[in-house]
């Protein structure tokens, strides 16, 4: 972020030179020198801003970078995620149970969403727990109850309709690992941490240096993760003027899902609008844009069952083949849509800023590492070109 | 096989060079075994010599006494006149057959029109080229061997080692045409293509493309390269690379477009089109401009992509570019604009750009007939779209006089017909006298 300082205001007093003044001037000069040094050092730090709608995978990318290029999570940090993970479990089962009740009332084929009589009490109990502010530790007993409910046919049917409810993406993963999560001495693994879902509030930042062959170059990056929900973006976005690059995360798997904050709004449409808005901000005129088309793994599976044109933005999509070819075709279509959006939202003079699209699956550490290497290469080349060295 | 060294005795008079006879004899150059077929089969030697000279072309530092004074080429069948001057047989016979009875260099009149084969000189020339040829062949083998080695290396290494291997291979492929064959024979094309994917770094990708673009690619290879992920990579490199990389990427895409199974979706990428426009506009690199415009023209021939080209603002950018282009580039640019004028968005963009009419009028009858044809077609499209607005602008820019020039010129009848129609269209809003005054050639047009 640009640091603006006007030293002039400190030294504008007109006073006769005497000893006390000399000492003060000396101190002022020293401060000035320090600020100049730090400003210079700051300039060599490339600032990256993670943007995107809620649940687009920004924080997962953030965690991956921490795992890849910093010291990762130590045991204390890992342990700190235990309560979050348990909370995720309770939240998930509550959403599913409440969702089943809703579907049983409103859907035409309501019978398949009716939870079996044996499990009804369980459901009510777990739903009540899930609505508390403080969750109890996952004991073996509760775990078995959750497992039983999860395996209920109605709950599974509800899960299949997950897109119209707010079922988080980590649902299946945590449900499948329930035994492990409820061990008395449970310490979350790195993978568990990556799946854990906490809504980011405020700004978090980490500073890192990409390891590998560019170790010698000593490039330093600072990555900022900002909360994704709709609150007052326009008020703080200008604080990020001068960042080297914006990493915009778009979860391409959510073309059939609605927003958490507003269940009438399609998530993909929200992402589209947000991207458009970000592109047009004057503070990003010369900023490089790295678009991460995220959650490709979920997209891959979904696109073969749920047609793309369910989303208004993709309504002109025409399926071509089936199987793997279809997935590629669908992906290329989505990519072109984003490309189109970029060019529509960018003034001709600004079209020269770097704009690249990357296919990502934020949960796959190897892929994130490969992707970041490419991002790093692009930014370094850009640097050299601007310095006239290439 | 021992390294064949250049003997220090190869210094001939007549160019500040002296022949050391002893060493020449010792090395078996004169009448020795190393020369070739021997005295008797002069024809055999000639064919060999001709082939060697061709393969070694262009040769530097050929001793000047080996060069025919008429053609300035090395002599394959040297013959000597009575004046003692030596020429290539074919050339001097031609000179004499034209009726000249003088020696071309000394200007002396010939007292004897006989030509004597200069066997000594022939043997020396043959030996000299043989030496060079052997060395060339050896180096070629070395180079081919090295190329094969590099391809093996590429299958195993990654990272910086890979980049270095590619760099070396690229340099060799550019310098030696034999390397291209080696690469093809050892499955190099498939190997290089397999290196290109969504996670390929720019360093690796740009080198690989640099090699591929100099090879002849068969159908299978081209289809392989047309995969969306690979094309995406090429487009990215086109946008980010050095001028050489940009040109290579552009040329590669152009090569792919020649393939019969080519689908226009592959080039329907806004990033590609924007990148090509940027390349075309780059004044610092005229060969880049030509390459970029050439591909744009090829892409423009696919009607479906024209809308996209207009949407990246190509029309106004091309129009602005026109005054600075060389004639070859001008033809390309005008061809593109003409193609774009066939779609409604293109016509509107042309009309909205203020420089379209003045630049197009200026180009009539200025460069070539095809340029005139395109410029005329563009003006026609614009004036037809908005006759009230554009016709007067055009006339003010001196269109009428230019059209008269076309009609009076040796251009094709269709062109003249078009000009007449356009002239009529433009004259509609003017009275006869006023219009005639506009038809006078102003100084700017002259």
TrEMBL record, chain A:
One GO cellular component term noted in the UniProt record for this chain: cytoplasm
PROSITE patterns hit by this protein: G_ALPHA
Localization, UniProt: Cell membrane
Pfam families documented for this protein: G-alpha
One term of GO molecular function: metal ion binding
Protein name: Guanine nucleotide-binding protein alpha subunit
Native organism taxonomy: Eukaryota, Viridiplantae, Streptophyta, Embryophyta, Tracheophyta
Positions with a binding annotation for GTP: 55-60, 169, 194-200, 225-229, 294-297, 362
Required co-factors: Mg(2+)
Oligomer status and interactors: G proteins are composed of 3 units; alpha, beta and gamma. The alpha chain contains the guanine nucleotide binding site.
Domains (record comment): The helical domain is required for self-activation.
From TrEMBL, chain B:
Catalytic activity: S-ubiquitinyl-[E2 ubiquitin-conjugating enzyme]-L-cysteine + [acceptor protein]-L-lysine = [E2 ubiquitin-conjugating enzyme]-L-cysteine + N(6)-ubiquitinyl-[acceptor protein]-L-lysine
Pathway this chain belongs to: Protein modification; protein ubiquitination
PROSITE patterns registered for this protein in UniProt: U_BOX
GO molecular function, one term: ubiquitin protein ligase activity
Domain U-box: 61-135
Enzyme class: transferase
UniProt entry tagged with the keyword Membrane: no
Assigned EC number: 2.3.2.27
InterPro entries: ARM-like, ARM-type_fold, ARM_PUB, PUB22/23/24-like, RING-Ubox_PUB, Ubox_domain, Znf_RING/FYVE/PHD
GO term, biological process aspect, one: protein ubiquitination
Keywords, comma-separated and alphabetical: Transferase, Ubl conjugation pathway
Keyword Transferase: yes
Alphabetized Pfam families for the sequence: ARM_PUB (PF25598), U-box (PF04564)
Biological function: Functions as an E3 ubiquitin ligase.
Entries under PANTHER family matching the protein: U-BOX DOMAIN-CONTAINING PROTEIN 31, WDSAM1 PROTEIN
Name of this chain's protein: U-box domain-containing protein
